[in-house]
Specification:
By secondary structure, the protein is mainly alpha-helical. The protein is built from 6 helices and no strands. The model has no long low-confidence stretch (mean pLDDT about 95).
């Protein structure tokens, strides 16, 4: 089931990039990010309320709160940078560089989460890196 959701995430992320590139034309990238964030906020809370999981808020640990807040800050900074890059660059070049986050995430997971790299993850990371640079070279 995780693979289905991951595939759907990839499709929606692709749509996000194309729709954003069209929608950001002629407006501030920061304003565009704020509008997008407001829509995401409303959608996320609507899903929480529809699934009845809002009751779980009281049981969230301080550690989880801290890391969720830090993750939110990182997400906000990522989106602001992404929209600015998308506004001034070509989507076909901006998106692969943005998705290089896959390799960065792998390295951080090895260092901070102590996940064990194997030949497949190392080769995959190398191929993603090579592919990213091939796609952005002139």
């Amino acid at each position: 089931m995780w693979f289905l959701f991951a595939c759907l995430s990839a499709v929606f992320a692709a749509l996000t990039s194309i729709l954003a590139k069209i929608g950001i034309e002629g407006i501030s990238s920061n304003l565009a990010t704020a509008i997008r964030t407001a829509v995401v906020l409303v959608m996320a809370w609507a899903i929480v309320l529809m699934t009845g999981t809002q009751n779980e808020i009281a049981s969230i640990s301080k550690k989880s709160w801290m890391f969720l807040v830090l993750s939110g800050i990182a997400t906000g900074l990522s989106w602001l940078c992404y929209y600015k890059a998308l506004q001034i660059g070509e989507a076909s070049k901006v998106v692969p560089v943005d998705k290089f986050s896959v390799v960065i995430t792998m390295v951080l997971a090895f260092v901070f989460l102590h996940e064990v790299p194997n030949v497949k993850t190392i080769l995959g990371g190398i191929f993603i890196t090579i592919g990213t640079f091939i796609m952005i070279l002139k």
